[in-house]
Write a structure and sequence with these properties.
58% helix, single chain
Length: 163
């Protein structure tokens, strides 16, 4: 049976590029952003949109590894792998990360499409977390940081620039 998997896939897709009830999708928030906007920080010590996207991708890669059967794969919290500081402006790097998000979305969708509902109750590796909990956590994580990115985008537009 695949009723629950289909439900999660619908949620996953809606958050990424659908029309979720809460507001703009992840793709909508990122659409049209240039490197200047993506790298901007409202103050020192804050995360930029590119840093938030890097962090989202880090944990999505983690999820792909677990879905692919690499149950020992881990990421150290708050490590440079988890949170990378981006300095300077690189339009190429920014566009590459947006493309990586698109590819990652397709990969997770492909991997979940190959699963049955019973898979959701299986242990997803270290920590005694089921795949259901890991999937829900990844969705929640994306939403949390999506809100931050939407706020950063709005703040950038409201902040005066020096000529």
């Amino acid at each position: 049976m695949r009723k629950e998997i289909k439900h999660y896939l619908q949620q996953w897709q809606s958050i990424y590029d659908g029309k979720p009830w809460y507001g703009p999708s992840l793709r909508t928030v990122l659409q049209g952003l240039d490197a200047e906007t993506a790298y901007w920080k409202p103050r020192p010590g804050a995360h930029s949109i590119i840093e938030l996207l890097h962090h989202i991708l880090c944990w999505r890669r983690h999820f792909v590894q677990r879905l692919s059967g690499n149950l020992d794969f881990s990421i150290q919290l708050n490590s440079p792998e988890d949170w990378t500081a981006y300095e300077g402006l690189s339009e190429e790097k920014w566009k590459g990360m947006v493309k990586e998000l698109e590819d990652n979305q397709k990969e997770i969708t492909r991997l979940l499409n190959g699963k049955e509902d019973a898979f959701l109750e299986q242990d997803s590796g270290k920590g005694g977390i089921t795949f259901r909990e890991r999937l829900e956590g990844t969705i929640q994580h994306d939403l949390y940081h999506l809100g931050q990115m939407a706020m950063m985008k709005a703040l950038y537009r409201l902040t005066p620039r020096q000529a």
